[in-house]
Amino acid sequence: MGSTKRITLEEYVERVAKRYRGDRYRALQEVYSRWLRGELKLVDPNPPRDYVHYLSRLDYSLWFWTVMFLVSLTLTSIAFSYAIPVLRYLRYVLGSIFVLYLPGATLIEALYPREEDLSPLERLALSIGLSLAVVPLIGLILNYTPWGIRLVPIVVSLTIFTVIMSIIASWRKYLEVKHGP
């Protein structure tokens, strides 16, 4: 449209739909393709006021709460898998995600807080790759402690690492929202 005036997305779609004789589907496709090409910038009219508000808005922090839920579910499955044998299979699945994906994913989110920095495929590949690098380093450090490499020290260390990286990533993402790119 060439205008830098701020209007709502709904108003913009209506303007584009007029060119397509009211066909909202084609108008939405056009708006989406313009957004993908970078010709259109979408801005939240009501951004979070502070960090707590950022964490309470799921449109910004759903990834954070998903990580916290997966960590909690993994810890629960580990704790109860000895008493309830059926949970052993859930423990295998969640443990694999906990070890092979979450440490790297939270580190990637902390290093690259903006969505535009990496494509989803790059994020996935780097998350798995960094997990395969970080987890052995944590194990190496644990080897030289009095606790050694056993289940509890490994789970505690990976939980601490994942939670700290998640908090750092959410803070950096909040700063991106607050100050803009």
Automatic annotation (TrEMBL):
Name of a matching Pfam family: DUF1616
UniProt KW Transmembrane keyword: yes
Keyword Membrane (UniProt): yes
Regions crossing the membrane: 62-83, 89-112, 124-145, 151-171
Origin superkingdom: Archaea
UniProt domain DUF1616: residue ranges: 73-173
Record keywords: Membrane, Transmembrane, Transmembrane helix
Record protein name field: DUF1616 domain-containing protein
Organism the protein comes from: Ignisphaera aggregans
Classification of source organism: Archaea, Thermoproteota, Thermoprotei, Desulfurococcales, Desulfurococcaceae
